[in-house]
Structures are given as C-alpha cells and as structure tokens.
Amino acid sequence: MTSPYDIAIIGGGNAALCAAMTAAEAGAKVLILETAPKAYRGGNSRHTRNFRCMHSGPLGPLVESYSEEEYFADLMKVTAGKTDEHLARLAIRTSEECLPWMQEHGVRFQPSLSGTLSLARTNAFFMGGGKSLVNAYYRTAEKLGVDVLYEAAVTHLQLDSDRIAWVDYTHAGQSHRISPKAVVVASGGFQADTDWLTRAWGEPAKNFLIRGTPYNRGVVLADLLEQGVQSVGDPTQCHAVAIDGRAPKYDGGIVTRLDCVPFSIVVNKNAERFYDEGEDTWPKRYAIWGRLVAAQPDQVGYVVIDAKSLNLFMPSVFPPLKADTIEELAVMMGLPADKLRATVEDFNAACGDTSNFHPTELDGVTTTGITPAKTNWARPITEPPFYGYSLRTGVTFTYLGLKVDDTAQCSTKDGPIKNLWAAGETMAGSILGQGYLAGYGMTIGTVFGRIAGREAAAYAN
User: Fold this and answer.
1) β-bridge pairing 153-160 and 321-323
2) Domains of the chain by range and CATH?
3) Average predicted confidence (pLDDT) for the chain
4) What is the pLDDT of residue 261?
5) What is the model's pLDDT at position 113?
6) What is the pTM assigned to this prediction?
7) Of 405, 400, 399, 437, which is closest to residue 87 (Cα–Cα)?
C-alpha cells in the first residue's frame, strides 16, 4: 500500500503528458500508467494534427489574430450553446500561453495545410502530426524523471470518503496496488467499448467505426461514476465525424476523414439528399456529419462529386470510386441508378450563378427550389469522370465524463475529492455539450492537463 510516487497519472495521451511534465517540474515524483503498448502510446493524441489557439497577434506559425470573443463564438456555433462558459473561456484564454509552453517542451510547428482546412489563423499544426507531439512529450517527461508503465491497465480507484485511497492496476500478468498522494485521470472516453456505445445509442452504434485508439474503453470512468463521482455530459453526445466507409473498425485515425462534403452532394442508401452540404466551412461543421450519417438507414451515406471538385480537398487514404457516368457510379456504390440520376439532375437544375465560387470561404453560391438547399459552393455535378465515397459514422471520443471545476478537481455530491483531478477527453464534456470545433480537444487537454498537474503537485507537496 505504500508508493514511491507522489502522483499517479492514468492515461498516456496529450492531457496526461501535460499533467506529468507540469507536476514533475513542480518537484513531484510522477508515474504514468498507460494501458496501451509502447508502440500505441498516446491515445487519440497520436491522430491529431493541430491545436486551436487564441492569439492577439502573430504567434509561432499563426498569422494575424484570433480573439477570445471570435473563438468563443465559433464554439457556440458548433455546440448550440451547450457549454460551461466559464470553463470554455478558461480553455480559450489560456491557450495563448500554451503554444510557447508546448514549444519549450519539444513540440515543433509547421505552416498550416492548404485546401478546405484554411486554418492558418486559428490552428497551429504540429510538425510530424500528433505522433511527433506525443513522442516529444515522452522524451521531455523522461528527462524530468517521470516513470512510465506501458500495458498497465488500471482497474479500480478506491474512493474513501473525500479522497482516493489507492489505485489497482495489472501489469505483466500481475495485480498491483499503490497509494500515491494524488491521482490525475486522463484516460479518455468510453468509445472503444461498443457494448457501452450500444447501450447509449441503441442498435445503430454497432455500425459505428471508432476513429481513435481501441484502448479507451471507459474502465476508470465507469469505476468512478459507480462510486458517486459527479458526471457531466450526455452518453449519446460525442465527437463523431463522417469518415470513409472503408476505414477499419478501430484506429483509422485522421487519414480516414473525408473533407469533400462541401463540394459534393451527400445521399443516403435511397439516393436521397438529407442535409445542406454547404452550411459552413469544414473545420466548423465537419463534426456534425457523423451524427447526420448515424441517423440515415444502415448508418451510411454516399458522397458524389465531379472532376472539377476532385482537387479541392485533402484526399482520404482510400482513393474514390470513379466512373464515366452517374449511373455507373451508382452501380459501383450499390445505389439505385435511376434515383441517383434524378437526384443529381434535380440538384443541377437548382444551381444558379457560380461565378462567385470560392472554395475556402462562404461564397453564397446557393441552390433555389430544392430541399434541403445547399447554401454555399453549390455547383452542378456535370463534369466527368464522376467520383464517389461511402460515409460511415466515425466516433473519436465520447462526452460523458467527469465533472470538474476550474482547477480540474473532481467532486462527489458531498464536495471536492481532495486528491483527484481529471483532464482531457475524460472531462471534455464539461465544455463540449455537443458538436466539435477542429483542434479544440487538444486545447482542452493541454490547458486542463497543465492545471491538473499543477494542482496535484501542490497538494502532494
């Protein structure tokens, strides 16, 4: 029951590493318990590309400025107001100081990517992507004296009144118990447990794909909720995007995302359009498409574009289907050919003047006379060859999590738990009630990881 460690951090992704480095710099002896093998360390952070950052002027790779109010307005659009404004603004405001901190801890940035992302002003891209960020942080943590156990699956945290008394985990076929002074939970959501997803969503969840790590199964989250730790969020809300239907069940990552929706029409298996593909720029709206596809028959959708749109977006890792006619494409995708032809013709007839078409801005090039309308980038699909992708719901992380305050501390109904903090996806539902904003998960993890590490170290010391 004794432990040489002041702080145990559960999880091995961005939030956990930010907490570990911050606590170690404050003089605490830190142990990271990472369920995944070393090659798969880092949770969903391995698959990230960028960090959404407020800044009052040019900062690192970021150009111009991105104010707190604009950032918050962007968040309100995608969450429809379902957010804790105090915590959201804390994350936004603190993000500006995080970028230089990230650089000091080994992260390198690159100029933003071109195409439909268009995030040069708002999002700082990691050189080498999320895997490089994770590796850099592990190197820095090691230099700071942080110990890491891989394939260490935490099974139970014993809540004794207002404190965590011990942590149980398995490693190398053995059961272990330690009693650190403080604990930080940064072990993500429950999305890789498809049985839990199905209990929340119903049978459609069996058709979902999991974009991220197969190791985020919500074991620690469930354990703490069963003991009365306060929760936040809706189990059916999650960061869910439309991904290539050919993606693997788990761990397909960012390369399976499809950015072509704004330049396409999207139909269901009956070859019917069901939503405005041009509602907003992709970084602000892409996360709604997972839920839209989930609501369609068999939880599947199909993208149709023509030759003039093929090079306007970042390609998926899988090449599109290609055909000389709409009917041929329909057969390849398993859609009713006559119905898809009619849908495309109706859409084409509803398109008007396209002279103001601008692929990276809201251009007002809209349809008239059809439902749903397409409100931007509405160009006729007329130029062969024609291309198609299948879409499935790809869940990144779930929003049911641990409720925290602005010091990242967890509580029961009776008050704060003295030595328990949470950071990252396991508490992101405190801020993300629904929807998602590109790069904001990394912002939440970085800000609250640093806060949790600071507070845990102060308590332990």
Assistant:
1) unpaired
2) 7-235+399-460 (3.50.50.60), 240-394 (3.90.700.10)
3) 95
4) 94
5) 67
6) 0.90
7) 405
